[in-house]
Amino acid sequence: MRLAMLAPIAWRTPPREYGPWEQVVANLTNGLVQLGIDVTLYATGDSATRAKLRSVVERGYEEDSSYNVKVFEALHIARVFEEAAQFDLIHNHFDFLPLMWSRLVATPMVATIHGFSSAGILPAYRAYDDRVHYVAISEADRQPDLTYTATIHHGIDLDAFAYRPDADPDGHVLFFGRIHSDKGAAAAIEIARAAGRPIVLAGIIQDQGYFESEVRPRLGLDATYVGAVGGSDRAVLLGSAAALLHPIAFEEPFGLSVVEAMACGTPVIAYRRGSMPELIRNGVNGFLVDGLDEAVAALARLDELERRACRVDAQERFSSARMVAEYVAVYDQILKGG
């Protein structure tokens, strides 16, 4: 099988700090190459991969603002489709724009839909529903009027997230995610403070106005913001917390930090929205709650959870190997005409 893997170019693949789509592409690509599949990764030139690498831009546009994003996104997508005859299959992780090229080539395409930024992009997916094979990243994120080939939960490199059994169950809690109203950083501070717990917050500031008006005024000796955290520091931060707070204010399609925390043995307390009921097994690897009061009460019940159970659940359900195997099954189905 000759496979073209089309990554976004906002960040490097894998990302240095933030970049969940790029991280999933990196995990999948390396796993496929390990199985002996011939993969060509279309990503930024500074990407690190076991696959063949092709690029039209050296760095991600979120790290280098010197070039016109629309121009280089178009050049990036165009290169894949101009070289489409070299491949048996194209796997698109670049949202909806590559769909418009799909009927111009004979090579079939599978598209992982990493969520819908708004209802406004749905017409693009509907227009190519009969041509592109869609994969959802959770049952919660499926659109009822689209046709899906599969739902495949993301998988992580478990070796990169070491189990930490020694974290203090009465210690600090963690918020790990974009600093944006959708993710609920301010709510996380309020939950921790009401429970009498110190909290550490980590993540890129995606909405500066929200940070200045809702997050910064709530910071203090018991609530510290440490910025974006990547690499091995990410696992250390996730594994050292008594719990991860995930009080989302939107229907989140997945949530990599949730399964990464569980892989470290850290339970997750999350609002019952989006994909959270698919990721969190209530009373096993965390608690699903509705609102601040229930989240505070859940923090008082952490002693009911075993960190080892969090790790085991992540190993059983969210390994990169499981994700890779499920995508290989999808590829085989498509190439056999299914």
Task: Report on this structure.
By secondary structure, this protein is of the alpha/beta class. It folds into two domains: 171 residues, Rossmann fold (3-Layer(aba) Sandwich); 160 residues, Rossmann fold (3-Layer(aba) Sandwich), CATH 3.40.50.2000. It contains eleven helices and 13 strands. The strands form three sheets. The chain has a seven-stranded parallel sheet. Strands 8-9-10 form a three-stranded parallel sheet, covered by helices on one side. A three-stranded parallel sheet has the order 11-12-13. Helix 1 packs across helix 11 and helix 4 crosses helix 9. The longest helix is centred in the C-terminal third of the chain and has 16 residues. The chain starts with a strand and ends with a helix. The model has no long low-confidence stretch (mean pLDDT 96).
> How much helicity do the residues have?
25-40%
Domain tally? 2
Stretches where pLDDT falls below 50 for ≥5 residues? none
CATH class of the largest domain: Alpha Beta
Query: What global shape is seen?
Result: globular
Q: What is the spatial order of strands in the main beta sheet?
A: 3-2-1-4-5-6-7
Order of secondary-structure elements: EHEEHEEHEEEHEHEHEHEHEHHH
- Structural class by SSE content: alpha/beta
Number of strands: 13
CATH architecture of the largest domain: 3-Layer(aba) Sandwich
Termini gap: 16 Å
What is the CATH topology classification name of the largest domain?
Answer: Rossmann fold
What share of the residues does DSSP label as strand, in percent?
Answer: 15-25%
Biggest β-sheet description = 7 strands, parallel
CATH superfamily of the largest domain: Glycogen Phosphorylase B
What gyration radius follows from the Cα positions, in whole Å?
20 Å
- Rounded mean pLDDT score: 96
Total count of helical runs of at least 4 residues:
11
